[in-house]
Specification:
Layout: H1 2-14, E1 29-33, E2 36-40, E3 45-47, E4 51-55, H2 60-63, H3 67-72, E5 77-80, E6 84-87, E7 90-96, E8 99-100, H4 105-113, E9 122-126, E10 140-145, E11 149-151, E12 155-166, E13 170-183, E14 187-206, E15 210-231, E16 234-260, E17 277-304, E18 311-333, E19 337-360, E20 365-383, E21 386-406, E22 409-428, E23 433-436, E24 440-456, E25 459-470, H5 474-477, E26 489-491, E27 500-511, E28 515-535, E29 538-561, H6 569-572, E30 584-596, E31 605-615, E32 621-629, E33 633-634, E34 637-639, E35 645-655, E36 660-667, E37 675-679, E38 687-692, E39 696-704, E40 714-717
């Protein structure tokens, strides 16, 4: 009886497990076999023991605009310039199709802004990475899945969109992309390509010293290609990805800085009455050009056996990322001066990994997985044509993990051993000599364990633990991460920051894949964080290690279908309704608190997300999304206004037998998104302000060319995924 009460109570709160399954839901895919129609639905939000999966393919509120726009709307996601990208309080490592992007900070933002959201199939947020994931995944993993299913006939999908903003002037943004895929008796192939163009602005202020306004013009291009060859039971997959971003900025700046005192009397000693330097207002204009290129090639050989649960995979990946950042600045006040800067960076990434898994007889059933990885990163930077950083990182690792099940209990125990060799040198401009970086040569063990208890059908309780490490990103190391916007603001990377160690604990109860309650605590050592310091009229920004901190996070998500107010529970329990035709709200709340010993003024922060689906006449779907946060601490910073405060509205309708979808949307309609912070690590706080043109209005179109062959074979996803635990049709599953 008690179990029945639990089921009914959770079901009343999670019946939109069928509501978000289509439009906050999923698209039904039909196969006709001898006159019988079989329908399979894929869930729009799915809670698993180690991850949360968000479907983008059929959710207009997520797949309109850029990828970054869609990611920001995910419940529990926070994106800021200060702390980067975090989910439920955990810093994220960003993957694409199972492979780490190895892009960070401004380059990652530009990359995601230049990628249309409708090119994403789904997003997996792996909150509890197991031993099969690299220990360098840190707190959690954001895995962007762009793969589609290849069919035995040519299919094509066109996606396009246009949006605009109108603040001080009218600005346009548009994107176009096409996806093709097919297969024959020998191989299958897939090709997608597209482009984006974005006009926008950013405004930032640092105390009373610097005030900048930048007009941005960004152009992005991408191509993704994949081929798969069936070799008996085995399979060979080849992938190639190319991305290019070309971003221009036009600057108008002003502020206060120290300049030579024209009335200084050299015959008298310098004093307050006779200062050598005096504060003066300055004004400047400038422009910047940032070009970046990313190429990646991957080859995967999948060995398969008679037992479909026995797998052996070999994967080789190479990627290259290049960036050029040119700046030109004109000071028009208090005197005319000209500055220019030329920075560039190059990164080569090599990765080879082997993964094996097979069932074993352990308790009622079990599985063992093990494998190894070798990874190498070479990163160099140049300033004004002079090489000033040479950084190398090598990682060798191996892992083993065991899964077992006994009655209502499921167990996972694993460990990963990684050996690091990090070294390099940076050019010291003061001494004109090269200084060796602080080396990091260590061998470490990273354990993980989890247990799940099935309270009732589709109601589970999980306990998880894992130890992870996060290596400094190349943008945090790059000494050339500076701008010429202000004469008295110095922004640099820090080549000597050390890796971060995480001990992550989580307790979670979930029901029907949608409703969940979780509590996370992470003990963090050497967290890398932005550090801002002011001395007189000079301000510096760099990256430092926080010796230790404890991160607490409480999260709850519950769907609320409106039918519970109009229909008896007995009828709802029959599930005799179309999830694409009901009204619902999905409610999320999260609390984050960072306990840093050196910070006295500590405040937690609440995050709220409310998204819904309302069916209007003529089959029109109305999807509002409200995001809001309270004030609170973010490492060395405290928000003085909510960092999340926006309302997005989406209207969508399908035409032509659901082949054509048209979406109208308005983002941040009240123009309320602002980011105000003050530092809390010093007696005299420094105030920082940042704003972007987030209020925009647009239209997006998605058209699927129809096919006559409804019985054609559907192949597995072709684009690589390193997610062995994922059961929703990735290439890792036969």
């Amino acid at each position: 009886m008690k179990n029945k009460i639990i089921i009914l109570g959770m079901l009343a709160l999670s019946i939109s497990a069928f509501a978000q399954e289509t439009g906050s839901k999923e698209k039904s895919r039909e196969k006709e076999i001898q006159g019988v129609s079989m329908t399979k639905t894929k869930k729009a939000v799915e809670q698993k023991a180690d991850r949360t999966i968000f479907d983008f393919s059929e959710q207009p509120s997520l797949n309109s605009g850029s990828s970054l726009d869609g990611i920001k709307k995910l419940p529990g996601m926070v994106v800021t310039d200060i702390a980067g990208m975090m989910y439920q309080g955990k810093p994220l490592a960003v993957f694409m199709d199972g492979r780490p992007l190895n892009i960070s900070s401004n380059d990652l933002t530009a990359f995601l802004e230049g990628m249309p959201a409708n090119s994403i199939e789904r997003i997996e947020v792996v909150t509890q990475p197991g031993a099969e994931f690299p220990a360098t995944s840190g707190g959690a993993i954001l895995n962007i899945i762009t793969s589609k299913s290849a069919k035995s006939y040519l299919t094509a999908t066109y996606s396009g969109g246009y949006r605009f903003t109108n603040y001080d002037k009218f600005r346009s943004r548009f994107n176009n992309s096409i996806s093709l895929n097919s297969r024959n008796k020998i191989f299958g192939w897939q090709l997608s390509a597209g482009q984006t163009y974005t006009e926008g602005f950013s405004s930032n202020k640092m105390d009373d010293l610097s005030n900048n306004f930048v007009d941005r013009y960004a152009r992005g291009y991408f191509t993704k290609a994949a081929m798969t060859f069936d070799l008996g039971k085995d399979r060979l997959l080849l992938n190639y990805d190319f991305y290019q971003n070309n971003n221009d900025g036009l600057l108008n700046g002003s502020g206060i800085s120290l300049y030579k005192n024209e009335n200084f009397d050299p015959s008298l000693p310098a004093s307050e009455a006779n200062p050598q330097l005096v504060p003066k207002s300055y004004a400047n204009t400038g422009k910047s050009k940032n070009k970046s290129y990313r190429n990646e090639v991957a080859a995967t050989y999948q060995k398969r056996f008679n037992d479909k649960n026995q797998k052996l995979d070999f994967k080789l990946t190479y990627s290259n990322f290049r960036s050029n950042f040119d700046q030109f600045n004109n000071f028009t006040q208090p005197f005319i001066a000209y500055q220019e800067g030329y920075n560039s960076s190059k990164q080569n990434f090599y990765n080879f990994r082997v993964d094996y898994s097979q069932p074993i007889k352990l308790l009622e059933e079990g599985k063992i997985s093990f494998g190894g990885l070798y990874e190498k990163v070479d990163f160099t930077t140049d300033n004004m044509g002079i090489k000033n950083l040479d950084y190398q990182r090598q990682t060798a690792s191996t892992y083993a993990e065991v899964n077992a099940k006994l009655k209502k209990f499921s167990f996972v125990v694993g460990a990963r051993a990684e050996d690091y060799d990090i070294s390099g040198a940076s050019l010291n401009y003061k001494t004109a000599k090269w200084d060796n970086l602080t080396p990091f040569k260590k061998f470490k063990i990273f354990p993980n364990a989890s247990v799940q208890y099935d309270i009732a059908r589709s109601v589970n309780f999980n306990l998880n633990y894992n130890k992870k490490i996060s290596l400094p990103s190349t943008s945090q190391l790059n000494p050339n991460n500076n701008t010429l916007q202000s004469p008295n603001v110095e922004i640099t990377g820090n080549p000597d920051v050390q890796p971060t160690i995480y001990d992550n604990f989580e307790a979670k109860i979930s029901a029907f894949d949608y409703a969940f309650v979780s509590y996370n605590v992470s003990h963090v050592k050497d967290q890398v964080m932005m550090y801002v310091e002011r001395k007189g009229y000079n301000l510096s920004q760099t990256n430092v290690n926080i010796s230790s901190l404890t991160q607490h996070s409480f999260n709850v998500g519950m769907p609320l279908p409106f039918m519970i107010f109009s229909k008896p529970m007995s009828e709802i329990m029959k599930f005799n309704f179309n999830p694409d035709k009901i009204n619902f709200l999905y409610l999320y709340a999260g609390y984050q608190f960072q306990d840093i010993k050196d910070i006295q003024d500590k405040k937690g922060m609440w995050f709220f997300n409310v998204s819904g689906q309302f069916i209007l006449p003529k089959g029109i779907k109305f999807s509002p999304t409200l995001m809001y946060s309270t004030k609170g601490n973010y490492y060395f910073f405290q928000s003085t206004t909510p960092i999340m405060n926006r309302l997005d509205l989406t209207l969508s309708k399908k035409f032509n037998h659901d082949r054509l979808q048209v979406t109208l949307y308005a983002n941040d309609i009240f123009n309320s998104s602002r980011m105000y912070f003050k530092t809390v690590n010093s007696p005299n706080p420094i105030y920082l302000y940042n704003r972007n043109d987030t209020r925009s209005f647009g239209i997006s179109v998605n058209y699927k060319i129809p096919t006559r062959n409804k019985l054609a074979k559907v192949d597995q996803n072709m684009l690589n995924q390193d997610a062995p635990k994922e059961d929703n049709g990735g290439i890792m599953k036969q």
